Amino acid sequence: MSHDEQRGEPQSQRATAMDKHVGRRIREQRLAMGLSQQQLARIIGITYQQAHKYERGLNRISVGRLFSVAQALATEPAWFFEGLTADSAVEEILPRQRMQMELMRNFASIKDEKQQEALSSMARSLATS
């Protein structure tokens, strides 16, 4: 009997929770970089539908593909696993995290670099007060 079976937790359910966590992290970083799913898919050579399934945790991402995603999103593969614990893997995105992702998406869509710098400066000022 495997360690997972001893805990009463089928491996497929743990993997699904992990896949969802990694998918959320992919989405978070993609939005922070201002990329659409279509753009990310094109960069790493997959279909939009496959990128969508990775982000939703519906399809497991291979190590090689995760490495390509990490390169495309200018991060290390390990970053996608940060915050993953046996208990937290199944938690849904909190409302605050949704707001942060929306802020990143909106910031990335600002085309004027001076406006981005002004907003960044304001955020930094608010964070230190």
From TrEMBL:
- List the InterPro entries hit by this protein, alphabetically: Cro/C1-type_HTH (IPR001387), Lambda_DNA-bd_dom_sf (IPR010982)
For region Disordered, the annotated ranges are 1-21
Give every HTH cro/C1-type domain span.
26-80
Name of the protein in question: Helix-turn-helix transcriptional regulator
- Pfam families recorded: HTH_3
